Every structure is written in structure tokens, then in C-alpha cells.
Batch of 2 targets.
Target 1
Amino acid sequence: MSQEKPVRVRFAPSPTGKLHVGGARTAIYNWAFARANGGTFILRIDDTDPTRSTEENTQVILRAMRWLGLDWDEGPDVGGPCAPYKQTDRMDIYLDAAKRLAESGDAYPCFCTTDQLAAAKKAAQDRNDPFQGYQRTCRDIDPAEAQRRIDAGEPHVWRIKVPLDRGDVVIHDAVHGDVTFDAKELDDFVIIRTDGTPTYNFATVVDDAAMGITHVIRGDDHLSNTPRQVMVYEALGAPVPTFAHISMILGADGKKLSKRHGATSVEEYRDAGYLPDAFVNYLALLGWSLDGDTTIVPRDVLAKSFSLDHVSKNPATFDPKKLDWINAEYMSAMDDETFAHTVMVPELVEAGLMEEGECKGRKPWLLKLAAIIKPRAKLLGQCADLCRFLFEGDEVTMDEKSVAKGLAKEGCGSYVNAAREALASLDTDHWTADDIDACLEGLPERLDTSKRKFFQTVRVAECGNMVSPPLGASMELLGRDTSLARLDRARTLCG
RNA sequence: GUCCCCAUCGUCUAACGGUUAGGACAUCGCCCUUUCAAGGCGACGACACGAGUUCGAAUCUCGUUGGGGGCACCA
């Protein structure tokens, strides 16, 4: 262990869709592992599937990675010593590698048609052959003969030639321990397709070897593919990296997370109002734990403490409720000023409630607003709705149901009058939450009514709704004139 | 069919042979309270099953059951 190579890890998404939560977690683990070990984090675009990969998806994935705050040291846009970092730009590299394997006798051309292969497979099934892979039909074709057929233009693929005496393949996995695969499971799989493009299992290994990847951290679904990839490393004469296969993320019904379970792509969570730090925190915890007790793991702690031996083997169920809770934790951990200018103000501006320019002059006001909104907002995007009533001047929008319950009932008029009268005696200098509260405090008793009824009425009058932030603070923020005007207006609605 | 992986509260997890099986989310209750939140306190709640090994097993072994994934000229 004393002379370990510097850590190099990669996240290699296929741009066949958006970045989804499972991929995001894989990216997070790779990133955190690199950071925790002073290693290099590489982003590579595995776009060898010509039919499903798109440039647009690539851009979506890069954007999602940036939003998550996962910075990469080498990648398609930043370059690096192993460039290019997009597989479609590396085609000659795969062909060269395949050529070398052909020359050394570790790969051979196969002329079987798909029909022939299908027939062979069916035959294997029919005779209950435990081995249903490729029957190695073309393995022993005479090289000169094979060359003749290639020159004649006969369609062919290239297959890897697995040594007959290879024996069982044992994978040393950082999360699963040793995993053994029976030698007879190995077949001579395709490395170069008829159209000359490389298959995933080949291209990935060629790249991982060329890029000096030391740890392959990826989804569990690749575990069964790993022995074939090991064959490629061995044929290439490259060292086999350490693997770490992490479990899948499941939906609430125990099935692989999919559209049916709701949002699956990172950008949907961004748009739904989650903080990237909170999202990363939640995903990191899905299958990894710091110590079993800590739930809030800021990214700097993650980048310092992440370790493969605390990665869980179990599949994890995605729990939106816990994500919400973590998001709220991150929001309330912000100080009022940070909350005001990073989340609240942008939203108010966006919602058209404020002008960008007027924020500076209203800083004290905004800080007070932040203090009452912060504990009430679970997601970004909820602030505007919570604050709207403060921006409607004398004519606040009245919630019908609230009016019916809080203003239209008997006695409400007297509550409004009493509040109006008491508050009118407060001058502007004393128009603060505390003084307003103190001013109203004794009124319910004097009016021989309950606090609940009295304040509900005043609340509806001031806020237009039975549900609102604290009344005194709201009125302070509304200002004396507006508060009094709203009471005047409410009087006309009373029963 | 075959190969591989997985198995602790509803959910995420801690435990690395000896614990009253711990924490967090959710749920429920109480407190605070002028509504809604937030906060405080508490309750509920798990070692899938069966055999071994051991003085002692959630932990090790085997089997069963249940889930998941691979077996492509997809990644």
C-alpha cells in the first residue's frame, strides 16, 4: 500500500438522455473519491451508440454537472493530457487497439450473420446447453483464408479471443469484495462491429487503460460485464483497475427508478427548487454514510471524508421526503442575508414583485422579511407566494374562504374597528412588530372574544388569508399607512 | 433458462462475535403558540426464514425464500 499510484477516476455518461439521479450519484461518488484522495476526476462522454447519442444531451449533462458543482479536472471542454474526451473523437484509437490485438492473435474476424448467430443460440437453448454464448465458429478459420474473405469485402466483426485456459475470473471489488465468475461464462464477444465502430465493452476498457484509470466506480448493472472487460485489459496487457460497483437507486415500489416514480433527471430537481448542495448531500447519503449518525454532510466534508468502504451494497430507495427535509435544512442554515440575496430576492424579481434596482435601498426591510420567510420555505420558488401579500398595496388579494371565516362573521366589524383605533395611536416611530403586538394584545379580552377569533380577523384583513407569517412582523413590513388602509377596506367586507 | 449481486424499523443507515440492536427521514402524541411554519420533548417501529459453527451470531458457513441486474454488432 505504500506505493499506490495517484488516483484517477472518471465519470463516463452516455448522452442518450439527460443526467438522471442514478448517474448523478455515480458522478458524485467519483468526484468525492478523487477529491478525498487528492486524485484526478475525469469526465468522458461515452457516445459510441451512434443512434441514441446526441450533442444536445451532452450539453444537458455538462450543465447538470456544473449545477451539481462537480468540477472535473479533465474532460471534453477543459481538455487534458488524454484528450480527446469524447469517444466518437477517439475512433482511430479503438481501431488501432483492435488491430494490435488482431496482430497478436488476441482478436479474430467473425463472418457469422445475425441469422446464423440467432440460429446457433436457439439450438443451444433447445439442447439445454448451459453455454448460450457465441460458439466460436470463426475462431479457427485459417488467418490467410480470413484475410482473403476480408479483402473480398465480406462483412465481418472482430471478436476477442479468450484464452481457452483462462480459468475463473475473480474481480476484486471495493464494495463487494471478491466476486468469482466461472470461466465457461466467458465468450468471444464482439469488440468491433460490422460498421467498424467499437462496442461499449471494448471502447470503455481501451479508454480506461489509456487514461490510466485506477478505480472504476460505476453502477451495479455493470458487474456482470466486468469479467469480459477484464479479458480486454489482459489482452491489452494493461493493469486491471480496482472496481467499485455501487447499487442501483430504486423507486418507492422497489423497482428501478423511472419516470413512473416522478422526476428522474437532475434538471427536474433543479427546476423544482432544490439547492444543489442539498441535492448532492441527499444523493451522497443514498448508499454511503459518514458515520451512521450524521445526516448533513456539506460538500467540503464529503470531498474530505468520502471513502469506498462506507459504501453500502444494498439497493437504495429514493425518498423525496428526506430530500425535502435536507433541502429545508440547507435553507435554514443560511444566514438571513445570504438567504435574502441568493434565494429570496431573485425570486421576487422573477415574480415581478420587485425591481432589481430597488433591493439595495430596502436591505433592512429585506432582512426582516428573510427572517420570517426562511423557516416557511421548503423549496426555492415558494418565497414569492409567501411574500406576495406584502406587495399588493392597499388592495390585497382576498382569499374567499378566509373572508368567509374571518371577516364575514358576526362581530368581525367590531374587531376591525378596535384594531384600527388602537393601531392609529401608534406613530410611525413605534411601528415595529413588538409594539404592534403589544398594542393589540389586550384587545380580545376587552372585546370579550377569543384571541383566535380576533387575530384571525385582523390577519385576514391585513394579509388576505387566514394563513400568513406572524401578524406583527407582517404589519411592520407593510408599513403603517398600508396596514391601516387594509383595515379600512376590510371593514367594508365585514358582516 | 443461466450467471452474478443484494437482504437490519415504512425509507436511508450504524453495528465489523458479547449493545436494552444506535441515529436520521416519515408517521403519531405532547409542549410552545394568534394562523402557518420552525423549534423542543416523547412514542411507534427492524436483524426475511431454516439449519449449522461458537460458551456466545444481526454479524461467520450452507440452504430456502424474496428482490435486483447481466447474458446484444445498447451503454
Target 2
Amino acid sequence: MNKKIGLIYRKLYQHFGQQHWWPAESVFEVMVGAILTQNTSWQNVTKAIDNLKRAKVLTARKLLNLPQKRLATLVNPAGYYNIKAKRLKNWLNFFFKFYQGSIKKMSRKNTALLRQELLSVNGIGPETADSILLYALNKPVFVIDAYTKRILSRHNMFKETDSYDTAQRIFMSNLDKDAKLFNEYHALLVKLGKDYCRKNKPRCAMCPLK
DNA sequence: CACCAGGCAAGTA
DNA sequence: TACTTGCATGGT
């Protein structure tokens, strides 16, 4: 049992408080956001999501039937718009083929098996799969992202070059398997990353973990 | 102007 | 397994 993992969580929570993630109006919106936010600032993602809302196509079936070129235009502000339109289509095709577009049906699937299925979709990697599992479906899976690696590697918990699975194991083997806890912890790490631990802008003198 | 943002896949060696 | 590159907008 590594106590540092728990200590860091308590310090972050004490400093920043609840983060209320994922910022979205629906479970479906979380899934779309998970793909749109790949290597992209959340600010740009909200512009893309707003476009989808204004066009009234932010439902599974509407997006499924939307031409990919039109979808690409709508998600343009999120960057990589051609690739993301394709990835959204890949995911929607999977979602309807195996779960008839039903979040309820998908949520009933065994978490480990569902994770494998998600990873088989072209365009869904480990972080996107785990974001969907945790933030959309409320499954106890810890999400690892660039901030998480940067922060925890600076605190010598693992190396920044360690694999996704290695980093994930550090968290999941040292915390209760609690979706609410995983949700809050990861959100707090992103908050810390945005405020203090951005790339090439270390402000560790003011870091609340010190 | 340079650099970064809640990644991933495909190609190479 | 471990690199490298393409994808692209918008903020600092």
C-alpha cells in the first residue's frame, strides 16, 4: 500500500475542493467530448460541442446519420477535425452495432470486456476508453493523462515514459475501487496541471503539494 | 514568433 | 519494443 497516493489526493481535495466533472449536460455529450478532447484544450472542445448543439445533432442517432464531411465542419474548432469526425463515426458505428445506441445496454457489459471492445475501435485509445468508462458510465477505472504523468513523475511515483498501464496500476492498486474517488482524483490532477504544472512552465514553488 | 492543449494510429527499425 | 510523424485549431 502506497500511502503517498492517498496523501496527494487529500492535499489536492483540501486545496481545490470538488471539481464536478465531467462538464457536460448528458452522458452522450461526455462520450463525444472524450474523443474531441484528444490532445486538445477543453476550451476548443466546448466550441465544437456548442456547434453540435446549435445544429441540434448532439444525439447518437443524429450523429450516426450525419454526413462525415458535415460533422467535420461542425467539430472544426476542436482541431484534427477530419480525423475526429472519422473517429466519432467509428465509435457511433460500434455503439449501434453492439449496443443499438443504448447507453443502458452498454453500461450492463462487464467493465474489463467493454474496455477491450472500446480499445478495438480505431480512434479510441486507453485514455479515451477509460474516460468513457469512468466519466460517462461511472465505472471505477482510473484515467491517466499527460497531466497525471507529468505531476506524478515529478513526485517520483513513476517515470513519465512509463506505460499507460503501469501508471494506471499505481493508482488502482493503492486506492479503493471507487468511481467517485477516481473521478474526483483525476479531475483534481488536471486542475493542478492547468494551474501549476503546465509543460515548460513549472511553478512548483507555489504548488499546493509542496 | 514559438509553444502548448484532458491522444491516437501508422510507419519504421 | 521503442521511436517518429501526421493530424489542426485557438490561446498565451
